[in-house]
Amino acid sequence: MSIVAESPGFIQVFSNGAVKRFSPPTAPPSLSNTKYKSKDVIIDPSKPITARIFLPQHHSSQSKSIPILVYFHGGGFCIGSTTWLGYHTFLGNLSSTAGIIVLSVDYRLAPENKLPIPYEDCFAALQWLATAAGSNTEPWLQDADLSRIFLSGDSAGGNIAHHVAVKAIETNINIRVRGLLPIHPYFGSEARTELEMEKSSAGEVAMNDMFWKLSLPEGSDRDYYGCNIEKAGLGTTEWGLFPAVVVFVAGLDFLRERGVMYVEFLKKKGVRNVSLVDAEGESHVFHAWNPDSTASFLLQNQIASFIRSL
After folding, report:
1. Residue 63: HSE in the Cβ half-sphere, 13 Å Cα cutoff
2. In this predicted model, what pLDDT tens digit does every residue of 31-72 receive, in sequence order?
3. What phi and psi, each to the nearest 5 degrees, are found at residue 69?
């Protein structure tokens, strides 16, 4: 049995199909944090899909008044979890800073569950949210404002946020996605960009290609709609319904170029409210690896400002 794909320290895929994942430190849900509380919920036990809810410890008791951010973690569709300490800390602090409910989703991972399964799982979480908040079956969502739903995620999670937003437009669902906040989104294509063709980029390109190969459906290439945004199927009228978007990129991130291209793509499609925020001197998903850094606190405030503006 040999290793056929590997991201050292994170995942190994073996020739017999077995997968070994290495997890960084994790955090349990807690009610004792002074700024926020958290608990885990089951979205669909049959798959399974789970999530962690973060709620500010001090919030207004006005009914149906709190915006909700649905967050999808990164990891090339193959690794990652809302239980990772970095995500837990960043999203809990974000909940407190922005005064919002955060629903952070643990979807099924590739290569065992290839695309579009992560999209389906995350849209199922959105449907669960509509039902749980609308029927008051989840006490932590009793003050949730279903007219102010925001979708966010980093890297592959930013990709997922885009596709869940598209699905929400295509589907008659009883909530309104008010805004989209992809962080360092992970997109690609068979055609290489200028940066990707540089010799110095060989290592980054090889790693990205490996994760795409693990996550794309059998027989698909990087022009699959989930990878190449140019293959999106929305019509002109539907693009006119797309929510406001702020795309966060990082100056030292190899995927920065793709994030800028995503902004240009949305503008070309006629999405009216699109902006770009660049964290100069920062690396890919810095907020998950250093959630207590100055840059991470700035990102939380930028997210909060965008939500409050809508």
Report:
1. 2
2. 989 999 999 999 999 999 999 999 999 765 554 589 999 999
3. -105, 120
Options 155, 189, 215, 296, the catalytic residue: 155
Angle at 147 between CA 65 and CA 93, to 5 degrees: 55
Q: Cα separations (Å) of 160 from 52, 75, 103, 212, 293?
A: 17, 11, 14, 14, 26
Residue 63, pLDDT score:
46
Beta strand residue intervals within 94-165, DSSP E: 101-106, 144-154
User: What are the Cα distances from residue 49, in Å, to 43, 105, 109, 120, 127?
Assistant: 5, 8, 10, 10, 12
Catalytic residue among 162, 184, 284, 287: 284
Residues 218-268: tens digit of each pLDDT? 999 999 999 999 987 788 788 999 999 999 999 999 999 999 999 999 999
pLDDT at 61: 54
pLDDT tens digits, 122-134 = 999 999 999 998 7
Quick check: is 44 catalytic? no
Annotated active-site residue in 106, 143, 145, 253: 253
Beta bridge partners of 103: 53, 70
Eight-state DSSP code of residue 183: E
The residue with tokens 């017999």 is 16
Largest CA distance in the chain: 59
Phi and psi (nearest 5°) for 68?
-125, 130
pTM: 0.97
Give me the DSSP letters along 194-227. Answer: HHHHSGGGHHHHHHHHHHHHHHSPTT--TTSTTT
